[in-house]
Structures are given as structure tokens and as C-alpha cells.
Amino acid sequence: MRKILVLLVMFVLVGCTSQSNVKFKIGVLQFGDYASLNDTLQGIETSFEDEDVELVVKNAQGESANIMLMATELVEMEVDAIIAITTQAAQAVAGVSEGKIPVFFVAVSDPGEAGLVMDGVTGVSDAAFLDDQFELIKTLTPGVKTLGVLHKTGDPNGVYQTQQIVEMANKYNIEVLVQGAMEISDLSMLAISLSEKVDAMYLITDSLIVANTGLIVEAAKEVGVMSYASEDGQMEYGVLATSSISYIDLGRQVSDQVKRVLFDGVDINEVEVEYPELVVPLINGEVAQYFEIEIPESFQSYVK
Asked: Do 259 and 286 fall into the same domain?
């Protein structure tokens, strides 16, 4: 009888220690394994590392089929909140959660166009500071009169960014040539053909373009055309320059929103959509040298 009691006590203790004692469980759904999205996740993780919180991170690896499955899994886990990284992830989570779980998006360019302005949903947009981008373009390459932009056909992020670029370019007397692509197989040929018609390429942050930055940059380089980018995660592929937001900071910013709702008890519907707080120019010195671009003294500190 004594042995049975001991075993029962041990079973209860083991059972208790296996239970999660964290105060909050937060789901994170990341669309793909891209530099900017990884930086966003890093910002989120560092924001909660000293908090009584468990992060349940799921990465769809760029596969749309995985998004709905993983969004459903997080909702069924009854997490206390979900952070969705990118438009596709946010749309899936918002649809599946049906307002039952607070949803926070990040790395979404146009929340309104993406249908994410609704009760129970808020977050941080990654809309680029285009004035800064075009000032950088005109400073480094004043001879640029035409700009090429590729985007994924039908992607709300890509469509929105392209529209904004066209409008801003008019202020700087730059013509923008736009080309949509459906699949990776289209990009190489389209990148070369578009690069042949423009003075520079501008890379946006929709899923197709971010995943294939290197391919586009190399195609443009083959015909003697440099590339600018929307964010610093694309710099490693041979981009000339960007005036970039920090996606690590975006991760921290959206985490602060989550804390206000979960820790401070603020109604999520009172938390307004926020935008990046800071941009920093970055210039690839080797690429500038390759294209024989003289960098002004005032920009030397931004050369990497």
C-alpha cells in the first residue's frame, strides 16, 4: 500500500511539473525565413525574454498552404494573443481567430487594403519612408531618370508599395516602369528585360521579391544597372543602398503593443496602428565602387 501511495504522489508531482506556469502564452506566426522577418522575430523574442511569457513560434517557410494550418493550430491552442509577421500571416490569423484572440500584425505595408482594420486586430506597419529613399537615390545617382519595380501579381503588399513608389517618384521627376510576376520562374527573364529599360531597379518587400532579391540584383547587374532596396535585409545580395527601417525595432514595437493589452489590460481596440519610428541610410561601398559612384562626404558614415 505504501508503494502505491508513493507512486501516486510521484505521478502527481510529475504531472504538476509538466504544466506550464507562465502567465501568458503568445503565438507567433512567421510567413517565411527571410532576413527582415527573422529580424522582426528577433525583436519580439528579445522583448519578452525577461517576461513571464511563453512564445509559440511557427514558421510557414514561405508556403501559403502552411499559413492556414498553423494559424488554426495557434487558435486551437487558445494562446492569449497572436503576433502575425507579414500580410498573409495576419490575414490568416484574423480570419481563423474570429475576434476571439487579440491579433497583432507586423511587417504589413497597408493594413487597410489588406482588410486588417477591424475589431480585435492592430499592429505595426512597415510602410517605407519613401521621401528618404528618393532623396538617397537622387543624392547618390542624380542621373537616374527611370526606375524599374517588380512585384508579385495580386499581392496586396506589392500593389500598395508600387502605387506609393509611382506617386513619390513623380515628385522627383523619375519615371517608374512596373512589371508584375506570378512565379519565381518569371523573375529572371522579367528582371533582365525590365533592367534594360531603366537606370536603376528598386526592390520592394513583397514575398516574391524579398525571397529572390539576389536573382533580381544579379540580373540587373548583368546589364549594368544598380539596385536600391526598401530594407536593410536585402543589402547582403549586392544592393547599392537603402534608407531602411529596422525590423528588429518593429518587432520590439509590436511587442510593446502586446504588453499594453496583456500586461496593462488596455482594450486592443484602443491601440492604434503604428508606423516605423526611425530610418537609417545604408550604402554598400563595394557596389558603389563597382558602379563608379562617388559617395558624398556627408554620407560616408553610412557606408558598410
From this structure: no
